[in-house]
Amino acid sequence: MEINYLNALRLGFSTKEGENIKKMGIASYLNSQLQAKNPLAEPDFISKSPKNISELKELRELKKNSEKEGKELEKLAKDFIKNNFEWKAFILQRCYETNYPLREKINLFFQNHFVATMQGVKVPYWIFQYYNTINTFALGNYKTLVKEIVYSNAMIKYLDNQKNREGKINENLGRELLELFTLGEGNYTENDIKNTALALAGLTFGEEKGQYRPFFKDNSTKTVFGKSGNFIIDDVIDIIFEQKNTPYFLAEKVLKWFFYDNPSQELIVKYGDLLKANQFELLPFFTQLFTEECAKSKGGNQIKNSLVFLFQVFKDLNLTPNYKLMAFFLKQQAMDIYDQPNVKGWKGGQNWLTSQSYADRQQLVTFLISGNERYEKMLNKRLEQFDIEPINFTPSLLIANKTNAQAILEEMTQRMIFETNEEMQTELSQLLKYDFDPKAENADKSILRVYQYIAHSPEFQII
After folding, report:
1. Measuring CA to CA, which of 64, 179, 239, 300 is 20 to 30 A from 360?
2. CB atoms within 10 A of CB 110
3. Tens of pLDDT along 233-269?
4. CB proximity list for 294: less than 8 A, separation 6 or greater
5. Would residue 318 count as lying in a domain?
6. CA 147 centroid distance within chain
7. What's the structural domain count of the chain?
Protein backbone atom coordinates (compact mmCIF):
# COMPACT_ATOMS: atom_id res chain seq x y z
CA MET A 1 0.00 0.00 0.00
CA GLU A 2 1.24 3.46 -0.90
CA ILE A 3 2.37 5.25 2.28
CA ASN A 4 -0.12 8.14 2.09
CA TYR A 5 -3.05 5.71 2.04
CA LEU A 6 -1.42 3.71 4.80
CA ASN A 7 -1.14 6.86 6.92
CA ALA A 8 -4.76 7.78 6.16
CA LEU A 9 -5.77 4.48 7.79
CA ARG A 10 -3.39 4.99 10.69
CA LEU A 11 -4.59 8.53 11.40
CA GLY A 12 -8.25 8.14 10.49
CA PHE A 13 -10.92 5.66 9.51
CA SER A 14 -10.38 5.07 5.78
CA THR A 15 -8.02 5.79 2.89
CA LYS A 16 -10.09 8.84 1.88
CA GLU A 17 -7.59 11.32 3.36
CA GLY A 18 -4.70 9.75 1.42
CA GLU A 19 -4.82 12.37 -1.34
CA ASN A 20 -4.89 15.23 1.19
CA ILE A 21 -1.85 13.80 2.98
CA LYS A 22 -0.07 13.46 -0.35
CA LYS A 23 -0.82 17.06 -1.37
CA MET A 24 -0.11 18.67 2.00
CA GLY A 25 2.74 16.52 3.28
CA ILE A 26 2.48 14.75 6.61
CA ALA A 27 3.72 17.71 8.72
CA SER A 28 1.14 20.18 7.34
CA TYR A 29 -1.60 17.59 7.47
CA LEU A 30 -0.92 16.79 11.11
CA ASN A 31 -0.82 20.48 11.99
CA SER A 32 -4.16 21.12 10.28
CA GLN A 33 -5.76 18.18 12.09
CA LEU A 34 -4.34 18.76 15.56
CA GLN A 35 -4.79 22.55 15.61
CA ALA A 36 -8.36 22.55 14.30
CA LYS A 37 -11.35 23.62 16.34
CA ASN A 38 -13.64 20.63 16.73
CA PRO A 39 -16.77 21.76 18.64
CA LEU A 40 -19.91 19.70 19.13
CA ALA A 41 -23.37 21.16 19.68
CA GLU A 42 -25.83 19.27 21.84
CA PRO A 43 -27.82 16.91 19.60
CA ASP A 44 -31.59 17.33 19.59
CA PHE A 45 -32.39 13.74 20.53
CA ILE A 46 -30.97 14.10 24.06
CA SER A 47 -32.95 17.25 24.82
CA LYS A 48 -35.34 15.27 27.04
CA SER A 49 -32.55 13.63 29.01
CA PRO A 50 -32.34 14.81 32.65
CA LYS A 51 -29.61 17.44 32.88
CA ASN A 52 -29.41 18.24 36.58
CA ILE A 53 -29.93 16.69 40.00
CA SER A 54 -33.54 17.87 40.40
CA GLU A 55 -34.55 16.32 37.05
CA LEU A 56 -32.87 13.06 38.06
CA LYS A 57 -34.76 13.08 41.36
CA GLU A 58 -38.03 13.45 39.45
CA LEU A 59 -37.09 10.44 37.34
CA ARG A 60 -36.27 8.39 40.46
CA GLU A 61 -39.63 9.30 41.98
CA LEU A 62 -41.35 8.16 38.81
CA LYS A 63 -39.57 4.81 39.04
CA LYS A 64 -40.63 4.43 42.68
CA ASN A 65 -44.24 4.92 41.62
CA SER A 66 -43.84 2.59 38.66
CA GLU A 67 -47.09 0.75 39.33
CA LYS A 68 -49.09 3.94 39.12
CA GLU A 69 -47.06 5.42 36.28
CA GLY A 70 -46.33 2.15 34.45
CA LYS A 71 -46.98 3.42 30.94
CA GLU A 72 -44.85 6.50 31.42
CA LEU A 73 -42.00 4.43 32.84
CA GLU A 74 -42.23 1.98 29.93
CA LYS A 75 -42.06 4.92 27.52
CA LEU A 76 -38.95 6.26 29.30
CA ALA A 77 -37.27 2.86 29.02
CA LYS A 78 -38.00 2.71 25.30
CA ASP A 79 -36.79 6.29 24.86
CA PHE A 80 -33.52 5.39 26.55
CA ILE A 81 -32.94 2.41 24.24
CA LYS A 82 -33.73 4.63 21.27
CA ASN A 83 -31.47 7.45 22.49
CA ASN A 84 -28.71 4.95 23.12
CA PHE A 85 -28.85 3.86 19.49
CA GLU A 86 -29.25 7.46 18.26
CA TRP A 87 -26.06 8.41 20.12
CA LYS A 88 -24.09 5.58 18.51
CA ALA A 89 -25.33 6.60 15.05
CA PHE A 90 -24.60 10.26 15.84
CA ILE A 91 -21.00 9.54 16.83
CA LEU A 92 -20.51 7.38 13.73
CA GLN A 93 -21.85 10.19 11.56
CA ARG A 94 -19.45 12.61 13.22
CA CYS A 95 -16.49 10.27 12.61
CA TYR A 96 -17.55 9.54 9.02
CA GLU A 97 -18.30 13.09 7.88
CA THR A 98 -15.71 15.06 9.82
CA ASN A 99 -12.95 17.03 8.16
CA TYR A 100 -10.81 16.12 11.18
CA PRO A 101 -10.73 12.31 11.37
CA LEU A 102 -7.56 12.32 13.45
CA ARG A 103 -9.28 14.35 16.17
CA GLU A 104 -12.16 11.90 16.28
CA LYS A 105 -9.81 8.93 16.33
CA ILE A 106 -8.02 10.49 19.33
CA ASN A 107 -11.40 11.09 21.01
CA LEU A 108 -12.41 7.47 20.46
CA PHE A 109 -9.04 6.32 21.81
CA PHE A 110 -9.63 8.19 25.06
CA GLN A 111 -13.22 6.94 25.30
CA ASN A 112 -11.81 3.42 25.18
CA HIS A 113 -9.07 4.39 27.65
CA PHE A 114 -11.46 6.02 30.14
CA VAL A 115 -14.43 3.73 29.56
CA ALA A 116 -17.88 5.02 30.53
CA THR A 117 -20.77 3.43 28.65
CA MET A 118 -24.30 4.44 27.74
CA GLN A 119 -25.67 1.29 29.37
CA GLY A 120 -23.74 1.95 32.58
CA VAL A 121 -24.41 5.69 32.86
CA LYS A 122 -28.03 5.72 31.57
CA VAL A 123 -28.10 9.53 31.37
CA PRO A 124 -27.53 10.54 27.72
CA TYR A 125 -26.78 14.16 28.62
CA TRP A 126 -23.93 13.04 30.89
CA ILE A 127 -22.49 10.97 28.06
CA PHE A 128 -22.65 14.07 25.87
CA GLN A 129 -20.79 16.06 28.56
CA TYR A 130 -18.26 13.25 28.88
CA TYR A 131 -17.59 13.34 25.12
CA ASN A 132 -17.17 17.11 25.32
CA THR A 133 -14.68 16.72 28.17
CA ILE A 134 -12.53 14.42 26.06
CA ASN A 135 -12.92 16.60 22.97
CA THR A 136 -11.91 19.71 24.95
CA PHE A 137 -8.91 18.30 26.84
CA ALA A 138 -7.59 15.49 24.60
CA LEU A 139 -4.80 17.69 23.21
CA GLY A 140 -4.08 19.57 26.42
CA ASN A 141 -2.31 18.29 29.52
CA TYR A 142 -2.83 14.62 30.29
CA LYS A 143 -2.96 15.19 34.05
CA THR A 144 -5.69 17.80 33.56
CA LEU A 145 -7.61 15.39 31.34
CA VAL A 146 -7.46 12.67 34.01
CA LYS A 147 -8.78 15.07 36.65
CA GLU A 148 -11.61 16.24 34.39
CA ILE A 149 -12.60 12.66 33.60
CA VAL A 150 -12.63 11.64 37.27
CA TYR A 151 -14.89 14.61 38.07
CA SER A 152 -17.28 13.89 35.20
CA ASN A 153 -20.78 12.86 36.23
CA ALA A 154 -20.64 10.03 33.69
CA MET A 155 -17.53 8.44 35.22
CA ILE A 156 -18.82 8.89 38.78
CA LYS A 157 -22.03 7.10 37.79
CA TYR A 158 -20.35 4.38 35.71
CA LEU A 159 -17.99 3.39 38.53
CA ASP A 160 -20.47 3.99 41.39
CA ASN A 161 -18.52 6.68 43.18
CA GLN A 162 -21.79 8.29 44.34
CA LYS A 163 -21.91 5.29 46.70
CA ASN A 164 -18.41 6.02 48.04
CA ARG A 165 -18.62 7.83 51.35
CA GLU A 166 -16.97 7.94 54.76
CA GLY A 167 -17.58 4.67 56.58
CA LYS A 168 -18.88 2.98 53.43
CA ILE A 169 -16.01 3.04 50.96
CA ASN A 170 -16.48 1.94 47.34
CA GLU A 171 -13.13 1.25 45.63
CA ASN A 172 -14.31 0.99 42.00
CA LEU A 173 -13.16 4.38 40.72
CA GLY A 174 -10.00 4.38 42.84
CA ARG A 175 -8.96 0.96 41.53
CA GLU A 176 -9.61 1.76 37.87
CA LEU A 177 -7.90 5.14 38.16
CA LEU A 178 -4.68 3.33 39.07
CA GLU A 179 -5.03 0.12 37.06
CA LEU A 180 -6.64 1.26 33.80
CA PHE A 181 -6.34 5.05 33.56
CA THR A 182 -2.82 5.90 34.68
CA LEU A 183 -0.37 3.26 35.94
CA GLY A 184 -1.27 -0.24 34.85
CA GLU A 185 -1.42 -3.45 36.83
CA GLY A 186 1.48 -4.18 39.18
CA ASN A 187 2.52 -0.55 39.68
CA TYR A 188 0.60 0.12 42.91
CA THR A 189 -0.41 -1.68 46.09
CA GLU A 190 -3.79 -2.57 47.57
CA ASN A 191 -3.07 0.09 50.19
CA ASP A 192 -2.69 2.68 47.41
CA ILE A 193 -6.11 1.64 46.06
CA LYS A 194 -7.71 1.85 49.52
CA ASN A 195 -6.34 5.32 50.20
CA THR A 196 -7.19 6.58 46.72
CA ALA A 197 -10.76 5.44 47.36
CA LEU A 198 -10.74 7.29 50.70
CA ALA A 199 -9.65 10.44 48.86
CA LEU A 200 -12.60 9.95 46.47
CA ALA A 201 -15.17 9.53 49.27
CA GLY A 202 -17.91 12.15 48.99
CA LEU A 203 -17.27 12.95 45.32
CA THR A 204 -20.70 12.67 43.73
CA PHE A 205 -22.89 14.21 41.04
CA GLY A 206 -22.97 17.96 40.46
CA GLU A 207 -24.79 20.24 38.04
CA GLU A 208 -22.09 20.36 35.34
CA LYS A 209 -19.57 17.97 36.86
CA GLY A 210 -18.91 16.11 40.08
CA GLN A 211 -18.40 17.83 43.41
CA TYR A 212 -17.55 16.83 46.98
CA ARG A 213 -20.34 16.65 49.55
CA PRO A 214 -18.67 17.65 52.84
CA PHE A 215 -20.93 15.42 54.94
CA PHE A 216 -19.77 12.28 53.07
CA LYS A 217 -16.11 13.22 52.70
CA ASP A 218 -13.40 11.25 54.50
CA ASN A 219 -11.12 13.66 56.36
CA SER A 220 -8.62 11.11 57.65
CA THR A 221 -4.94 11.12 56.72
CA LYS A 222 -4.32 9.08 53.56
CA THR A 223 -1.01 7.57 52.50
CA VAL A 224 -0.55 7.06 48.77
CA PHE A 225 2.78 6.03 47.22
CA GLY A 226 4.55 6.97 50.45
CA LYS A 227 3.06 10.47 50.78
CA SER A 228 0.58 11.34 53.54
CA GLY A 229 -2.04 14.03 54.02
CA ASN A 230 -5.75 14.77 54.12
CA PHE A 231 -5.87 14.32 50.35
CA ILE A 232 -8.72 14.82 47.92
CA ILE A 233 -8.45 13.12 44.53
CA ASP A 234 -6.68 16.08 42.88
CA ASP A 235 -3.78 15.59 45.31
CA VAL A 236 -3.66 11.87 44.64
CA ILE A 237 -3.58 12.39 40.86
CA ASP A 238 -0.66 14.81 41.30
CA ILE A 239 1.18 12.04 43.18
CA ILE A 240 0.27 9.42 40.52
CA PHE A 241 1.89 11.60 37.88
CA GLU A 242 5.15 11.47 39.83
CA GLN A 243 5.25 7.68 39.50
CA LYS A 244 7.62 5.97 37.08
CA ASN A 245 5.18 4.07 34.85
CA THR A 246 2.57 6.77 34.19
CA PRO A 247 3.98 8.08 30.88
CA TYR A 248 4.91 4.61 29.59
CA PHE A 249 1.45 3.18 30.28
CA LEU A 250 -0.17 5.82 28.08
CA ALA A 251 2.52 5.63 25.40
CA GLU A 252 1.98 1.88 24.99
CA LYS A 253 -1.79 2.24 24.64
CA VAL A 254 -1.44 5.06 22.08
CA LEU A 255 0.99 2.98 19.99
CA LYS A 256 -1.43 0.04 20.08
CA TRP A 257 -4.40 2.15 19.02
CA PHE A 258 -2.72 3.92 16.12
CA PHE A 259 0.17 1.77 14.87
CA TYR A 260 1.10 -1.59 16.36
CA ASP A 261 -0.75 -4.51 17.92
CA ASN A 262 2.51 -5.37 19.69
CA PRO A 263 4.73 -2.26 20.02
CA SER A 264 8.35 -2.83 20.94
CA GLN A 265 9.61 -1.94 24.39
CA GLU A 266 12.06 0.41 22.72
CA LEU A 267 9.21 2.47 21.22
CA ILE A 268 7.23 2.45 24.47
CA VAL A 269 10.24 3.83 26.34
CA LYS A 270 11.02 6.36 23.61
CA TYR A 271 7.54 7.89 23.56
CA GLY A 272 7.02 7.54 27.30
CA ASP A 273 10.20 9.56 27.77
CA LEU A 274 8.85 12.11 25.28
CA LEU A 275 5.59 12.47 27.19
CA LYS A 276 7.44 12.90 30.46
CA ALA A 277 9.89 15.42 28.95
CA ASN A 278 6.92 17.51 27.79
CA GLN A 279 5.38 17.49 31.30
CA PHE A 280 2.50 15.36 29.97
CA GLU A 281 1.44 17.88 27.33
CA LEU A 282 -0.39 15.82 24.74
CA LEU A 283 -0.10 18.03 21.64
CA PRO A 284 3.71 17.83 21.29
CA PHE A 285 3.60 14.16 22.28
CA PHE A 286 1.07 13.25 19.59
CA THR A 287 2.71 15.49 16.99
CA GLN A 288 6.15 13.90 17.31
CA LEU A 289 4.83 10.36 17.66
CA PHE A 290 2.62 10.65 14.56
CA THR A 291 5.33 12.41 12.54
CA GLU A 292 7.96 9.77 13.25
CA GLU A 293 5.77 6.68 13.01
CA CYS A 294 4.05 7.86 9.82
CA ALA A 295 7.46 8.17 8.18
CA LYS A 296 7.75 4.38 8.36
CA SER A 297 6.42 2.82 5.18
CA LYS A 298 6.18 -0.74 6.45
CA GLY A 299 2.62 -1.84 7.05
CA GLY A 300 1.26 -5.10 8.38
CA ASN A 301 1.65 -4.27 12.07
CA GLN A 302 -1.99 -3.92 13.02
CA ILE A 303 -5.33 -5.64 12.42
CA LYS A 304 -7.99 -3.15 11.35
CA ASN A 305 -10.55 -2.55 14.02
CA SER A 306 -14.16 -3.01 12.97
CA LEU A 307 -14.82 0.71 12.57
CA VAL A 308 -11.88 1.28 10.22
CA PHE A 309 -12.87 -1.79 8.18
CA LEU A 310 -16.47 -0.59 7.90
CA PHE A 311 -15.68 3.02 7.00
CA GLN A 312 -13.04 2.01 4.46
CA VAL A 313 -15.50 -0.27 2.65
CA PHE A 314 -18.24 2.37 2.60
CA LYS A 315 -15.90 5.09 1.34
CA ASP A 316 -14.17 2.83 -1.19
CA LEU A 317 -17.57 1.90 -2.63
CA ASN A 318 -18.95 5.47 -2.47
CA LEU A 319 -21.99 4.31 -0.54
CA THR A 320 -24.45 6.60 1.19
CA PRO A 321 -23.88 5.70 4.84
CA ASN A 322 -26.68 4.29 6.95
CA TYR A 323 -25.38 5.09 10.44
CA LYS A 324 -27.86 2.96 12.36
CA LEU A 325 -26.99 -0.02 10.21
CA MET A 326 -23.32 0.74 10.88
CA ALA A 327 -23.97 0.86 14.62
CA PHE A 328 -25.69 -2.51 14.43
CA PHE A 329 -22.85 -4.07 12.44
CA LEU A 330 -20.24 -2.76 14.87
CA LYS A 331 -22.14 -4.24 17.80
CA GLN A 332 -22.10 -7.60 16.00
CA GLN A 333 -18.35 -7.10 15.47
CA ALA A 334 -17.69 -6.60 19.22
CA MET A 335 -17.02 -2.87 18.77
CA ASP A 336 -20.24 -1.50 20.22
CA ILE A 337 -19.66 2.27 20.20
CA TYR A 338 -19.85 3.75 23.73
CA ASP A 339 -20.82 0.34 25.10
CA GLN A 340 -17.65 -1.65 25.62
CA PRO A 341 -18.11 -5.05 27.29
CA ASN A 342 -16.44 -3.85 30.51
CA VAL A 343 -14.29 -1.10 32.00
CA LYS A 344 -11.17 -2.54 30.33
CA GLY A 345 -12.53 -1.52 26.93
CA TRP A 346 -12.06 -3.24 23.60
CA LYS A 347 -9.10 -5.60 23.73
CA GLY A 348 -8.03 -4.91 20.15
CA GLY A 349 -5.28 -6.73 18.28
CA GLN A 350 -6.15 -10.27 17.27
CA ASN A 351 -9.48 -9.97 19.08
CA TRP A 352 -10.76 -7.87 16.17
CA LEU A 353 -10.51 -10.82 13.80
CA THR A 354 -12.08 -13.98 15.14
CA SER A 355 -13.32 -16.57 12.67
CA GLN A 356 -16.87 -15.29 13.24
CA SER A 357 -16.05 -11.59 12.80
CA TYR A 358 -14.04 -12.38 9.65
CA ALA A 359 -17.01 -14.29 8.22
CA ASP A 360 -19.32 -11.38 9.15
CA ARG A 361 -17.02 -8.91 7.38
CA GLN A 362 -17.09 -11.02 4.24
CA GLN A 363 -20.88 -11.36 4.41
CA LEU A 364 -21.31 -7.60 4.72
CA VAL A 365 -19.09 -6.88 1.70
CA THR A 366 -20.98 -9.45 -0.37
CA PHE A 367 -24.28 -7.89 0.71
CA LEU A 368 -23.14 -4.35 -0.16
CA ILE A 369 -21.90 -5.36 -3.61
CA SER A 370 -24.21 -8.17 -4.68
CA GLY A 371 -27.21 -7.82 -2.37
CA ASN A 372 -28.82 -10.54 -0.27
CA GLU A 373 -32.59 -10.46 0.25
CA ARG A 374 -32.56 -12.79 3.25
CA TYR A 375 -29.78 -10.83 4.99
CA GLU A 376 -31.60 -7.56 4.28
CA LYS A 377 -34.84 -8.86 5.80
CA MET A 378 -32.97 -9.94 8.91
CA LEU A 379 -31.41 -6.48 9.26
CA ASN A 380 -34.73 -4.71 8.76
CA LYS A 381 -36.40 -6.94 11.35
CA ARG A 382 -33.76 -6.30 13.99
CA LEU A 383 -33.62 -2.58 13.36
CA GLU A 384 -37.31 -1.74 12.91
CA GLN A 385 -37.64 -0.40 16.48
CA PHE A 386 -34.96 2.23 15.76
CA ASP A 387 -36.70 4.00 12.84
CA ILE A 388 -33.93 3.04 10.46
CA GLU A 389 -34.01 4.43 6.94
CA PRO A 390 -34.64 1.92 4.12
CA ILE A 391 -31.54 -0.10 3.27
CA ASN A 392 -30.54 0.87 -0.25
CA PHE A 393 -26.99 0.73 -1.55
CA THR A 394 -25.58 1.31 -5.02
CA PRO A 395 -21.82 0.68 -4.93
CA SER A 396 -19.40 2.29 -7.34
CA LEU A 397 -15.62 2.46 -7.46
CA LEU A 398 -13.80 5.59 -8.57
CA ILE A 399 -10.73 4.54 -10.54
CA ALA A 400 -8.47 7.36 -11.78
CA ASN A 401 -6.74 5.33 -14.48
CA LYS A 402 -9.04 2.95 -16.34
CA THR A 403 -6.89 2.51 -19.43
CA ASN A 404 -6.34 -1.23 -18.97
CA ALA A 405 -6.58 -4.11 -16.50
CA GLN A 406 -3.02 -3.72 -15.21
CA ALA A 407 -3.52 -0.02 -14.39
CA ILE A 408 -6.81 -0.72 -12.62
CA LEU A 409 -5.40 -3.56 -10.54
CA GLU A 410 -2.31 -1.56 -9.62
CA GLU A 411 -4.39 1.41 -8.46
CA MET A 412 -6.76 -0.76 -6.44
CA THR A 413 -4.06 -2.74 -4.66
CA GLN A 414 -1.95 0.36 -3.96
CA ARG A 415 -4.94 2.05 -2.36
CA MET A 416 -6.61 -0.85 -0.59
CA ILE A 417 -4.18 -3.46 0.70
CA PHE A 418 -0.78 -3.18 2.31
CA GLU A 419 0.78 -6.14 0.51
CA THR A 420 0.09 -8.59 -2.33
CA ASN A 421 1.67 -11.95 -2.98
CA GLU A 422 2.08 -14.03 -6.12
CA GLU A 423 -1.04 -16.08 -5.48
CA MET A 424 -3.18 -12.97 -5.07
CA GLN A 425 -1.72 -11.39 -8.21
CA THR A 426 -2.63 -14.53 -10.16
CA GLU A 427 -6.19 -14.52 -8.81
CA LEU A 428 -6.63 -10.84 -9.61
CA SER A 429 -5.37 -11.31 -13.15
CA GLN A 430 -7.99 -14.03 -13.61
CA LEU A 431 -10.75 -11.77 -12.33
CA LEU A 432 -9.66 -8.91 -14.60
CA LYS A 433 -7.89 -10.43 -17.61
CA TYR A 434 -5.25 -8.58 -19.60
CA ASP A 435 -7.70 -8.01 -22.50
CA PHE A 436 -10.33 -6.48 -20.19
CA ASP A 437 -12.25 -3.63 -21.85
CA PRO A 438 -13.03 -0.81 -19.36
CA LYS A 439 -15.71 0.49 -21.74
CA ALA A 440 -17.62 -2.78 -21.97
CA GLU A 441 -21.20 -2.92 -20.71
CA ASN A 442 -20.46 -4.90 -17.54
CA ALA A 443 -16.99 -3.46 -16.89
CA ASP A 444 -17.98 -1.78 -13.60
CA LYS A 445 -19.46 -5.03 -12.28
CA SER A 446 -16.22 -6.82 -13.09
CA ILE A 447 -14.25 -4.20 -11.17
CA LEU A 448 -16.62 -4.56 -8.21
CA ARG A 449 -15.98 -8.32 -8.21
CA VAL A 450 -12.27 -7.53 -7.94
CA TYR A 451 -12.98 -5.29 -4.98
CA GLN A 452 -15.07 -8.00 -3.36
CA TYR A 453 -12.15 -10.42 -3.71
CA ILE A 454 -9.73 -7.87 -2.22
CA ALA A 455 -12.03 -6.97 0.70
CA HIS A 456 -12.49 -10.66 1.49
CA SER A 457 -8.76 -11.28 1.60
CA PRO A 458 -6.74 -11.59 4.84
CA GLU A 459 -4.43 -8.84 3.54
CA PHE A 460 -7.30 -6.31 3.49
CA GLN A 461 -7.81 -6.82 7.24
CA ILE A 462 -4.32 -5.48 7.99
CA ILE A 463 -2.92 -1.95 8.21
Report:
1. 300
2. 22
3. 999 999 999 999 999 999 999 999 999 999 999 999 9
4. 3, 7, 10, 11, 26, 30
5. yes
6. 21
7. 2
